[in-house]
Amino acid sequence: MSCRLGSTVSRSVRQMATLHKPSLTGKSPTAIVMLNMGGPSTVPETYDFLKNLFMDGDLIPLPFQRVLAPLIAKRRTPQIEKQYADIGGGSPILKYTEMQGAGMCELLDELHPETAPHKPYVAFRYANPLTQETAQRMKADGVKRAVAFTQYPQYSCSTTGSSLNELFRRGRAGEMGDIEWSVIDRWGTHSGFIEAVAQNIEAALAKFQQSARSDVVILFSAHSLPMSVVNRGDPYVLEVSASVNAVMDRLGHSNPYRLVWQSQVGPSAWMGMQTGEAIKGLARLGKKEVILVPIAFTSDHIETLYELDLEYMKEGKELGMELHRAESLNGSPVFIRALADITAQHLRDYSARTIGPTSVQMGLRCPGCKNMTCGQQKHWFARAGRS
């Protein structure tokens, strides 16, 4: 059934992209601003990416951050440069985000012509194009209406929250002009997203012998969080778990599975267990057939191409395991259609005034939040970006 659905959606995407579009000459575009962490497109950009990342207290809180962040970035740069070299000379996340945005907006012009033309903008937090650069482009394009669309399916203050904080700072400073904003802040259980992930898992399962297929362990791997963030009430762990449960419901709970965490940085306590340790533990228990599923990433980048594909695959093979990774969403037509459907429904509901600029859930700060910018940002977006 899933293969037929994927074929149908693929044909639908191609057909809709070629339909006649109404004349929209001179109309200000509706900006769909795709928020993400980003990654260095070339190896020489690695230091700046790392410095920006370690400077972000929303993601990695550090004492004396302005002093320590550049030092940590400088120390880690040679190792991370080698990793980017090993995956082809840079991160492909910009390429895939632009591809997804272009496909989404082609469909949006047909799905919701009232707000056409729709134009995608990429706003990365730590790599080019940075939010500041995107803000300047939007102002030059005369944008008056924009949707901040997080590309993290599950919400965390350290990811989506940090990107929204940066967007708020640029907006409050007047760098984007006068724009009416609304926000898509989470979508980790949307049926189209779940279907795209499930289809990729089914494709990975097909690589195993049919007689052993039902015993394959599905390891959903998500980027970990510092326990200091989790313990202040961040919803990320709950929302990733909800995505995993929805995928397994779609798969009919056909296989045993676990949710594990990757990409821990630094000596402080982070969410566990770590993906690498889980692989070793499964091998010790005699579970030698495993699928790795990047459940919190919407396209390939260093965490999938290096950490999952090179590091963990090597460890698994050394332990005598058969490991395969479910493909990232990348150019999946099912996923691109999901992005368009999410945005079209948001635009319809916002135009009908059945929703406000932000979701009910986005309005609630973490119970342990002490970040004043977070509170100001939520208030600003709840007023559609009006001061």
Could you please describe the fold and organization of this structure?
It holds the Pfam family Ferrochelatase. Belongs to the ferrochelatase family. It is found in: Mitochondrion inner membrane. The chain folds into two domains: 237 residues, Rossmann fold (3-Layer(aba) Sandwich); 118 residues, 3-Layer(aba) Sandwich (Rossmann fold). 47% of the residues lie in helices and 12% in strands. It contains 13 helices and eight strands. Strands 2-1-3-4 form a four-stranded parallel β-sheet, sandwiched between helices. Strands 6-5-7-8 form a four-stranded parallel β-sheet, with helices on both faces. The chain is globular and about 60 Å long. The N terminus is likely disordered.
**Radius of gyration, in angstroms, nearest whole number:** 21 Å
Instruction: Characterize the biggest β-sheet.
Output: 4 strands, parallel
Distance between the termini: 50 Å
| Count of separate DSSP helical elements | 13
Overall outline: globular
Low-confidence stretches: 1-23
CATH topology name of the largest domain, in short, is Rossmann fold
CATH architecture level-2 label of the largest domain: 3-Layer(aba) Sandwich
Helix-strand topology string: HEHHHEHEHEHEHHEHEHEHH
| Strand content bin | 5-15%
Instruction: Give the strand order, joined by hyphens, for the main sheet.
Output: 2-1-3-4
Mean pLDDT: 93
SSE-based structural type: alpha/beta
CATH class bucket of the largest domain:
Alpha Beta
Secondary structure tally: strands: 8
